[in-house]
Amino acid sequence: MPLTLQFQQLDIPPGQRLLIHDLNWEEFEQFLIELGEKRASRIAYSHHTLEIRMPLPKHERAKSLIGDMVKILLEELEIDCECFGSTTFKRQKMGFGIEPDECFYIENHQQMIGKNKLDLAIDPPPDLAIEVDVTSKTQTDAYIRLGVPELWIYGEKELKMYGIENGEYQQIQQSKVFPEFPIIDWVKEVLARSYAIGRSPALREFRQQIRRLEN
């Protein structure tokens, strides 16, 4: 007889991931219910494979810092946005589910004001998604299916940026959201400074740097 396990029986150590294959949409939905909303784990579902990741503290530190850098840029440049954090994006028709570490509606921010529930049949994808330590094709496939125009992936002390071209992600050197700024270099510098002097001073330095460029 097939073995049936409850999610509560699974123990995923920080920094590790669990892959569950041959999972249909109804089973995926049930897993989301069992996982609940108040959890540290992140999920990705594509091609009938569910990936559950348990991030390390350094992961949370990096994703928070990069997300704060984006918020500072948007604020200082007076660009309106709606931040949706690690919201679950899923659509049965396309067979995917994904939870970014951070995501932002910028071009389509007005359409998302006040939204507490997403309907991907009518709602647009976020303009920018951020992931840290992505090692699985399941995750990037889900972002392609969602149609996120720009994806930032931070890993191995380096930020890589991707834009969709001909239905696939191609690495880009200049952000389409912030085309005038050296985002890759800035992320490296601010993360290094945060380890040297602390998160808040590093972000204050970054904000001052932006203001100097504007003046």
How would you briefly describe this protein structure?
By secondary structure, the protein is of the alpha+beta class. It has six helices and eleven strands.
Structural summary, described in words:
The protein is of the alpha+beta class and 215 residues long. Helix content is 35%, strand content 23%. The chain contains 6 helices and 11 strands. It has a 6-stranded mixed sheet. The chain has a 5-stranded antiparallel sheet with strand order 1-3-2-6-5, covered by helices on one side. Strand 2 and strand 3 form a beta hairpin. Helix 2 runs parallel beside helix 6. The radius of gyration is 18 Å and the shape is globular. The termini are far apart.
* End-to-end CA span: 70 Å
Given the C-alpha coordinates, what overall shape results? globular
Radius of gyration over all CA atoms, rounded: 18 Å
Count of DSSP H/I helices = 6
Overall pLDDT, averaged? 86
Low-confidence residue ranges: 1-5
SS-derived structural category:
alpha+beta
